Each structure stands twice: as C-alpha cells, then as structure tokens.
C-alpha cells in the first residue's frame, strides 16, 4: 500500500469536524487536538489580503476560516478523500482552492509564493524537515510566517498505521533546524491540555528571513 493510500484509508475513517463550535461559530481555527481549546488565528497576525498555504489541509476547515477573514487559500493534502470532503464543504467560498498532492511534490512544482504557511498536525510533522523546510522557505514571501503544531516530543497519541514516520523535535531542536534553514524569530510554545487530559500541544511560529 502506498503512502497516499495509507493516508486515504485513515482519512476515510476519521470523524468529521462539527459544523459549529461551542460559541456557535461556523468557521474557526484550532491548533490543538482538542475542540474549543488553545489559541486562535491571531498567532498568524492579520490575514486579510494574504495568500495562505496549508500543508495537510484535511477537511479544509482551518483554511476556510482564514479565507472567511479575507485571505486567499491553497490547501494541499496527500489523501484524495480529504480533498473530496474539503470541496464538498467549502467549495462555495471564493478564493479557496484544494488539491491532492504530497507536500514536497507540490512545493517543487508550484511557482506561487505565499505570505503564510501553516501545518496543523500535518506535513511538517511527517516529512523530513531538512527536505521540507527549504522548500517551504523557497515559496514564502520575504517576512512571511510559518506556523505549525503537533504533539510534544515523546508524547503518546494517535498515529495512522503505516502512514509514515513522525519527525518529533524538541523546542530547542526546532529552533536550531528552522534557523539553519533561513527562518528567524522562532517561537515555540507548549500549550497545556484541557482539564482531564494528559497530552498538550507544541506550537511553533517562525518568520521567513
């Protein structure tokens, strides 16, 4: 079974995101693995008028929220089932596109540049950073923002069977890796889990130098 087929099988069995959050919002951004928890899109600064790329866009809900705030968005996911769901749910929004592709293949082939690149439990966690980060940096505008989240290193959480190796890194390691690949102002935070849960979330933000 190919990597794309493994991710597609995992995607087909995953639970769909709710249509509204606890506040009744139809769109919202969630960096963590828990609903209604953690920071919002303010991590990215103002997004209106900016071109946003999400690597591992899933059902498209996070990217759709940014587009609803005035961004234009390109979602990329390796699983065809994810693109299907994203188009069904968010295809009506102008300025929002989705495609099925492996992250490094997309970045190698596109000639677009992006002001914001994000990955929420997505490609940055599953692709060798020494391969992926230079490609991301090459497609970012000067001073653009890269932000991504995943489980803290060493924590135990769901891992799709045969879907690939997770590239867990400590905060210090992410700082060194990102700086080494031309990023600056690297900020890493550990978000505590909600009450009754044991595993938090790591959130990383950096600027294109």
TrEMBL record:
Gene Ontology biological process terms, A to Z: antibiotic biosynthetic process
Gene3D superfamilies: Vaccinia Virus protein VP39
Superkingdom, taxonomy of origin: Bacteria
GO-annotated molecular function: methyltransferase activity
This protein's record includes keyword Cytoplasm: no
Pfam families: Methyltransf_25
Residues covered by the Methyltransferase domain: 52-141
Keyword Coiled coil: no
PANTHER family assigned to the protein according to its UniProt record, in alphabetical order: TRANS-ACONITATE 2-METHYLTRANSFERASE-RELATED
Protein name stated in the entry: Methyltransferase domain-containing protein
């Amino acid at each position: 079974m190919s990597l794309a087929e493994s991710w597609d099988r995992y995607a087909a069995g995953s639970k769909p995101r709710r249509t509204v959050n606890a506040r009744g919002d139809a769109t919202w951004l969630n960096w963590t693995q828990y609903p209604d928890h953690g920071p919002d899109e303010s991590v990215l600064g103002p997004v209106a008028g900016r071109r946003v790329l999400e690597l591992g866009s899933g059902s498209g809900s996070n990217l759709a929220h940014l587009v609803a705030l005035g961004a234009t968005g390109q979602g990329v996911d390796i699983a065809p089932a994810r693109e299907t769901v994203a188009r069904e749910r968010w295809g009506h929004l102008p300025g929002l596109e989705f495609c099925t592709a492996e992250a490094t293949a997309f970045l190698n082939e596109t000639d677009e540049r992006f002001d914001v690149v994000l990955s929420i439990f997505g490609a940055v966690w599953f692709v060798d950073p020494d391969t992926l980060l230079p490609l991301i940096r090459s497609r970012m505008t000067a001073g653009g923002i890269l932000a991504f989240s995943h489980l803290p290193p060493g924590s135990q959480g769901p891992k799709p069977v045969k879907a690939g190796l997770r590239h867990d890194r400590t905060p210090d390691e992410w700082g060194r890796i990102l700086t080494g690949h031309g990023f600056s102002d690297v900020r890493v935070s550990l978000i505590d889990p909600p009450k009754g849960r044991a595993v938090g979330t790591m959130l990383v933000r950096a600027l294109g130098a």
